[in-house]
């Protein structure tokens, strides 16, 4: 799919002299190795936050939602803010997977796995809030349209909140399937590389018996494309419907038609900020700098610039139309002069500074490619996008249509604790993921290695675009199995023992004198007076060249070969260094034993 | 090298002449006085007199509702209210009503010309944006199409000048806020006069015109310079230029939509509106790129463009048809759901008076492109893409028609000589200018850093 020609002007996406094997090793390392100290430290902190949040949730459910800072005017605040914040973060994953796949962006391959994981974990956090907010979460199934006798309000199909239930559950399931599909070949890679039988079993199950046949790959690519096509409208629909929650129902009589596309852009904006936050750490901790390069970070910063630009435009349009409409109530909305100068001025300006002004620095190429600065900006955007949702809800609600009910919102420790808890939960999941999943879609990265790998780019720069990329492997005739014995490239004629190659085929006696003696002491010597020499070429893996070498060492019979053990194999490898390990691999001793008995 | 075939040239000149004649006819036959209007109305009544008498009563009761009372208190002028509630001709006092109809009938040739003029301008402008996006995103598939896009954007200069002249001289035909009398009695319009005033309006239009055309001029210049250059400097310049143009465009596109379309009904507002106009513009533009590509390919002039490139263009047609529908639905759904009187008038007049066009447009712009272009293989079959393209272009012409007509001529709309003539004239001009533009240089962009990637491109 992506193995076609790539313009030399493009920067490499895989750094260093990587081979296919290196990719497997590098990606498999965090899973097959042991966790280091810093992982345990971060994991412990996340776990504590998670448990703290869990405590707050239990307290909320057992006591009632009164423990939150809500009041009559502001009937939802942190809960819905956090919900939308998490759902928004959950957006970038499927965007990277689906939309960038459709746009054939090769750089997605290094980041899509983690972004998709982030999506799923973020949606899990998001889903918590509506469930807790129900007060009686054991009745959560009430949001589903099940036949009932409660009348027309149950389930209320007119409410965008209900549409949310469908949108998000659909999104979660498709994202999960998409994620898992991409994981299949990579799970299989881990399965094949691990030495632990337990891991082999688990990853064997997880990979659904992936065999790596052409048919598997063909189906894999087809399914990926179909799922990408399905997921793209879903990406749009989820946040569109989340935006409807506010566009239709925050304050009666107020709405804004730009919300659907503006929320989608904002979600991608915040999602990419979170991907940056996670990947900048992960590339360092898991030693993946060769795959998640500065270029990847720059590309993601460009997406942040684009979506941030769209969000900025939407803010300006909102602000302008609020004035243009001539409706006095618009001055109470979150993007208006009234908001900028009102009691929530700090929330307004937090939004403007975090989402509009700070990301502007990314227009500078140096800053865009600066990892530390990118990390800081990503954190600031995450904060800014939280404020965006907070502003929409709390600022709008704080000045509703009835002046006597105007009020402010004060969060309690439970509000804060629950939010912190979800952040902890998110990181617990992500850290576990980083230790058990192949965090880079290595199978896909391998497909772009030749077009976008640094070493191959250098190769083309030196030798021209049409240079062959075939990595020459030392020919090993026995790989061809029995057919290696057919007269072809391996040998011209079975009678022509003394061709040029074999004549020059000399073992260095002086250097190896000791080893040869050692070897022969193990397997016995050949006495031409009493014994007849065997045709050693009958041993699979021994060609005319190898036979000549063995003759030079004094090995002429199957009997001698059949006495070879690991010690002799190693000695042989040291003397004849061309094909290390081959004798052992082909089990010459075993073959020779059979041949000897036949004679 | 492409040269506009003499037959096509002749054809374009003929339809231009015909169109010009028709437009002139439209302006000359527009009623001059109230007497003319009375005559026309009497004629109409003769055709279907009976029903009107019955309807008249019902309508009067409908329009005099609490919303209108509230509007009056909120600062709408009498005249503005009449305009806003003018859904049926029978709802108002006869003298002012006939005056109103006269105004709308006089506006009709203006609107007819503007719809066609803007439709073809937005194609050229949309192509320019698509072109800028290709540069800014360093796209690898599309450089083979650069000369084709540049050929289409040749139309930008004449097209934008004509549209500029129309919006500047249309005056109160299009823009009620330019009517000083009306503004004097309308508190809300007075509040908007900081933005909606004639000098600022013209200055803005000049800025759009300059910005778009300057980008078109310099990007074309750099693109041609790249063909003779031995380094990538012109390409790099174009990259930067394109990024800045896109920033300029995202702002000016919004203000342009407010200025030229939204301010036709100055009390109505919708934050999504500018992007909705953009979606229409963009999908039409990509469709025209596909059409021109198919045409040039059929003449064997662009062997380096493969069916994969067509496939990608068709994907964009498909995707942006859905995108347009998405924005259409978002705007419609939210306004319908909220049912706020100020906002919902926009859709009421369109559904009551333009029902067939309003819903037919959805079939043309959404259902057909989806059905025709859904299958992957069909996106590579030229005649299939052409069919989808015709649906899309007709659909988006209707879309522009629905942006302008209900806001300017209200229920007094027809699809007659002025509309057809304007369409013919601008189509002829478009074919002539674009055909000439395509013929100026070789259709193969040389030396672009991505051209080889684009030519060797397969998936």
Summarize the helices and strands and which ones pair or pack.
The complex is a heterodimer of chains A (599) and B (459).
Chain A: H1 20-32, H2 37-63, H3 78-102, H4 108-133, H5 160-193, H6 197-206, H7 214-249, H8 259-285, H9 294-324, H10 337-341, H11 345-357, H12 365-368, H13 371-398, H14 413-436, H15 442-452, H16 454-463, H17 500-503, H18 509-523, H19 544-553, H20 558-562, H21 566-575, H22 582-585, H23 588-598
Helix pairs in contact in A: 1-15, 2-14, 3-4, 3-7, 3-8, 3-13, 4-5, 4-8, 4-14, 5-6, 5-7, 7-8, 8-9, 8-13, 11-13, 15-16, 18-21
Chain B: H1 6-29, H2 34-47, H3 49-63, H4 66-74, H5 78-84, H6 94-136, H7 146-153, H8 156-170, H9 180-184, H10 187-192, H11 198-228, H12 233-260, H13 273-298, H14 307-338, H15 341-353, H16 355-373, H17 382-408, H18 417-438, H19 451-455
Quick rundown:
The complex is a heterodimer of chains A (599) and B (459). Chain A is an all-alpha fold and 599 residues long. Chain A has helices spanning 20-32, 37-63, 78-102, 108-133, 160-193, 197-206, 214-249, 259-285, 294-324, 337-341, 345-357, 365-368, 371-398, 413-436, 442-452, 454-463, 500-503, 509-523, 544-553, 558-562, 566-575, 582-585, 588-598.
Describe the structure.
- The complex is a heterodimer of chains A (599) and B (459).
- In chain A, 64% of the residues lie in helices and 0% in strands.
- By secondary structure, chain A is mainly α.
- In chain A, helix 4 packs across helix 8 (259-285), helix 7 packs across helix 8 and helix 11 packs antiparallel against helix 13 (371-398).
- The two termini of chain A are 55 Å apart.
- Chain B is built from 19 helices and no strands.
- By secondary structure, chain B is mainly alpha-helical.
- Chain B has helices spanning 6-29, 34-47, 49-63, 66-74, 78-84, 94-136, 146-153, 156-170, 180-184, 187-192, 198-228, 233-260, 273-298, 307-338, 341-353, 355-373, 382-408, 417-438, 451-455.
- Chain B has one domain (6-455).
- The chains are: A mainly alpha (599), B mainly alpha (459).
- The A-B interface holds A 1-2, 4-7, 9-10, 102, 104, 233, 236, 240, 244, 247-248, 253, 255-261, 309-310, 313-314, 316-318, 321, 324-327, 465 and B 75, 138, 140-141, 187-188, 191-192, 195, 232, 247, 250-251, 254, 258, 267, 269-275, 315, 322, 326-327, 330-331, 333-335, 337-338, 340, 342, 449-450, 452-453, 456-459.
């Amino acid at each position: 799919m992506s193995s076609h020609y790539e313009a030399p002007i493009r920067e490499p996406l895989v750094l260093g002299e990587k081979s296919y094997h290196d990719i497997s090793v590098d990606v498999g390392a965090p899973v097959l190795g042991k966790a280091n100290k810093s992982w345990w430290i971060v994991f412990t902190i996340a776990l504590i936050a998670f448990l703290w949040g869990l405590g707050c949730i239990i307290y909320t459910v057992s006591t009632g939602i009164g423990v939150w800072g809500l009041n009559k005017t502001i009937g939802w605040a942190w809960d819905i803010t956090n919900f939308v914040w998490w759902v928004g973060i959950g957006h970038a994953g499927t965007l990277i997977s689906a939309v960038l796949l459709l746009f054939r962006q090769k750089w997605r391959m290094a980041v899509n796995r983690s972004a998709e994981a982030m999506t799923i974990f973020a949606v899990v956090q998001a889903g918590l809030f509506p469930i807790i907010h129900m007060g009686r979460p054991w009745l959560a199934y009430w949001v589903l349209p099940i036949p009932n006798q409660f009348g027309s309000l149950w389930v209320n199909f007119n409410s965008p909140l209900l549409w949310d239930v469908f949108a998000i559950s659909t999104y979660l399931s498709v994202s999960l399937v998409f994620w898992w599909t991409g994981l299949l070949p990579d799970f299989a890679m881990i399965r094949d590389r691990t030495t632990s039988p337990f891991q082999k079993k688990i990853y064997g199950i997880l990979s659904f018996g992936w065999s790596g046949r052409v048919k598997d790959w063909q189906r894999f690519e087809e399914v990926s494309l179909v799922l990408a096509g399905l997921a793209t409208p879903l990406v749009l629909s989820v946040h569109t419907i989340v935006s409807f929650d506010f566009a239709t129902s925050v304050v009666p009589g107020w709405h804004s038609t730009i919300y659907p596309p503006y929320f989608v852009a904002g979600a991608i904006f915040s999602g990419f900020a979170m991907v940056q936050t996670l990947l900048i750490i992960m590339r360092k901790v898991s030693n993946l700098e060769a795959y998640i390069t500065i270029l990847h970070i720059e590309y993601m910063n460009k997406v942040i610039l684009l979506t941030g630009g769209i969000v900025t435009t939407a803010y300006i349009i909102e602000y302008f139309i609020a004035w243009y409409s001539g409706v006095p109530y618009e001055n109470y909305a979150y993007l208006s002069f009234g908001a900028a100068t009102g009691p929530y001025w700090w929330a307004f300006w937090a939004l403007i500074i975090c989402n509009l002004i700070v990301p502007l620095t990314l227009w500078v190429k140096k800053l865009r490619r600066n990892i530390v600065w990118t990390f800081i900006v990503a954190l600031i955007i995450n904060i800014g996008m939280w404020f965006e949702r907070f502003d929409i809800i709390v600022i709008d609600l704080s000045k509703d249509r009835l002046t006597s009910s105007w009020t402010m919102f004060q969060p309690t420790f439970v509000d804060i604790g629950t939010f912190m808890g979800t952040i902890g939960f998110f990181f617990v999941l992500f850290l576990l993921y980083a230790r058990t999943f192949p965090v880079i879609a290595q199978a896909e990265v391998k497909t772009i290695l030749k077009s976008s790998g640094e070493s191959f780019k250098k190769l083309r720069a030196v030798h021209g675009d049409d240079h062959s990329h075939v990595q020459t492997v030392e020919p090993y005739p026995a790989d061809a199995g029995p057919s290696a014995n057919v007269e072809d490239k391996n040998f011209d004629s079975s009678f022509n023992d003394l061709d040029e190659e074999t004549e020059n085929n000399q073992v260095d006696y002086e250097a190896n004198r000791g080893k040869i003696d050692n070897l022969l002491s193990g397997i016995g010597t050949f006495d031409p007076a009493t014994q007849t020499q065997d045709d050693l070429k009958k041993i699979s893996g021994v060609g005319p060249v190898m036979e000549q070498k063995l003759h030079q060492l004094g090995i002429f019979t199957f009997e001698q070969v059949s006495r070879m053990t690991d010690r002799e194999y190693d000695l042989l490898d040291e003397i004849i260094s061309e094909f290390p390990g081959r004798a052992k691999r082909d089990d010459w001793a075993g073959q020779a034993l059979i041949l000897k008995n036949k004679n | 090298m492409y040269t506009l075939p003499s037959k096509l040239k002749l054809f374009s000149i003929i339809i231009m002449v015909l169109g010009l004649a028709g437009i002139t006819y439209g302006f000359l036959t527009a009623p001059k006085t109230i007497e003319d209007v009375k005559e026309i109305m009497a004629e109409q009544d003769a055709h279907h007199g009976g029903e009107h008498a019955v309807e008249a009563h019902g309508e009067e009761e409908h329009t005099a509702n609490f919303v209108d009372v509230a509007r009056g208190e909120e600062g709408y002028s009498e005249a503005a209210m009449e305009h806003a509630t003018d859904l049926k001709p029978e709802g108002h006092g006869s003298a002012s009503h006939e005056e109103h109809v006269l105004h709308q009938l006089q506006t009709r040739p203006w609107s007819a010309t503007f719809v066609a003029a803007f439709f073809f301008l937005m194609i050229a402008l949309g192509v320019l944006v698509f072109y800028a996006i290709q540069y800014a995103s360093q796209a690898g598939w599309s450089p083979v199409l650069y000369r084709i896009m540049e050929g289409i954007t040749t139309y930008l200069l004449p097209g934008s000048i004509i549209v500029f002249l129309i919006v500047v001289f249309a005056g109160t035909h299009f823009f009620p806020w330019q009517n000083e009398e009306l503004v004097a009695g309308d508190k809300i319009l007075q509040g908007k006069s900081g933005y909606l005033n004639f000098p600022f309006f013209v200055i803005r239009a000049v800025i759009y015109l300059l910005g778009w055309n300057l980008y078109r001029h310099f990007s074309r210049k750099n693109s041609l310079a790249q063909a003779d250059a031995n380094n990538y400097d012109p390409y790099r310049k174009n990259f930067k230029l394109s990024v800045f143009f896109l920033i300029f465009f995202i702002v000016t596109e919004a203000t342009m939509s407010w200025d030229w379309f939204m301010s036709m009904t100055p009390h109505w507002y919708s934050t999504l509106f500018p992007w909705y106009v953009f979606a229409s513009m963009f999908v039409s533009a990509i469709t025209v790129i596909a059409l021109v590509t198919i045409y040039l390919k059929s003449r064997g002039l662009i062997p380096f463009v493969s069916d994969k490139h067509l496939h990608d263009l068709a994907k964009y047609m498909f995707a942006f048809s859905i995108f347009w529908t998405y924005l259409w639905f978002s705007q419609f759904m939210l306004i319908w759901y909220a049912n706020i009187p100020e906002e919902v008038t926009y859709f009421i007049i369109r559904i009551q008076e333009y029902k067939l066009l309003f819903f037919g447009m959805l079939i043309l712009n959404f259902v057909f492109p989806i059905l025709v272009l859904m299958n992957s293989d069909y996106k590579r079959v030229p005649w299939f893409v052409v069919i989808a393209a015709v649906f899309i272009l007709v659909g988006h012409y209707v879309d522009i028609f629905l942006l302008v007509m209900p806001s300017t001529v209200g229920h007094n709309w027809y699809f007659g000589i002025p509309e057809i003539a304007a369409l013919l004239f601008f189509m002829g001009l478009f074919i002539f200018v674009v055909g000439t533009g395509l013929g100026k240089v070789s259709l193969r962009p040389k030396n672009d850093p991505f051209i080889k990637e684009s030519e060797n491109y397969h998936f």
